Amino acid sequence: MNDTLRLLKQMWSFLKIRKKWWLAPIIIILFLFATLLVFAQTSPLAPFIYTLF
Q: In angstroms, rounded to a whole number, what is the distance separating the alpha carbons of residues 33 and 25?
């Protein structure tokens, strides 16, 4: 958990200092996609989520 929090802080400071705000939507979409894949593996709704792809 500590490593994840540190990574998030580093990403935020990178975006803030370097003014790379165009990366924020890409990072958010990747995070949502990864969350969906994790949820799809552990859920009884998996067959319905797989039909989206």
A: 12
Report which DSSP code applies to 53: -
Q: What is the pLDDT along the chain (53 residues), one digit of tens a residue?
A: 678 789 888 988 988 898 888 888 988 898 888 887 777 777 677 777 667 66
DSSP characters over 32-50: HHHHHHHHHHSSTTHHHHH
Count of alpha carbons within 13 Å of 41, Cβ hemisphere only? Answer: 5
Q: Which long-range contacts (CB under 8 A, 24 or more apart) does 42-46 make?
A: none
Model-level pTM?
Answer: 0.58
